[in-house]
Amino acid sequence: MSTRAFKMFVVASVVAVVSACSSPVKLDESQNVPVEDRSGQMSGNGANPNGVARVDTTQQGLDPLNDPKGVLAQRSVYFDFDSYVVKDQYRTLVENHARFLNNNRNRKIVIEGNTDDVGSSEYNLALGQRRSEAVRRMMVLLGVSDDQVEAISYGKEKPKATGNDESARAENRRADIAYR
């Protein structure tokens, strides 16, 4: 490894460590978030700009986790390249799963952080962990108990899509919510 490449590696490592110390999940707890009640009516501001439907987890006789058309079937939060900031478009998805977990305190999840194939295995394991932790922190801020949520990383070891093009890599930059 040349001296220049080594210096670039050291600088990139320092930047990665420093950025890992920041808190990328921002929730405005004073925001009026719409919630679906038992009748299916929306309360709060009523708008859902993200296109993700809200879930009513209080219906009896149905396990919303087994409904392939239900909102809890969506279990992947996607990230930008080299980022672990939960995008606004996935906020409703995380809120729906948090609401389900708050209503079902006996259920537990593992949030599995994943990355694309760019970068070293060590770097991608750390980035995958930061992605899973970002989703976990968001859920905890939404009231989910710490003992219900575990955050792990697979780095680049469990790709969802194969290939080296940008669409395949974008599909692999994610955190998956797995119920146990």
Automatic annotation (TrEMBL):
Gene3D superfamilies: OmpA-like domain
One Pfam short name: OmpA
Entry's localization field: Cell outer membrane
Domain of life: Bacteria
Keyword presence, Cell cycle: yes
Residue spans of biased composition, Basic and acidic residues class: 166-180
UniProt xrefs under CDD domains: OmpA_C-like
BP GO annotations: cell division
Gene Ontology cellular component list: cell outer membrane
Membrane topology annotation: Lipid-anchor
Region named Disordered: 29-51, 155-180
Domain annotation OmpA-like: ranges: 66-180
Alphabetical keyword list: Cell cycle, Cell division, Cell outer membrane, Lipoprotein, Membrane, Palmitate, Signal
Secretion signal span: 1-27
Oligomer and partners: The Tol-Pal system is composed of five core proteins: the inner membrane proteins TolA, TolQ and TolR, the periplasmic protein TolB and the outer membrane protein Pal. They form a network linking the inner and outer membranes and the peptidoglycan layer.
Function as written in the Swiss-Prot or TrEMBL entry: Part of the Tol-Pal system, which plays a role in outer membrane invagination during cell division and is important for maintaining outer membrane integrity.
Family in the record: Belongs to the Pal lipoprotein family.
Name of the featured protein: Peptidoglycan-associated lipoprotein
Origin species: Pigmentiphaga humi
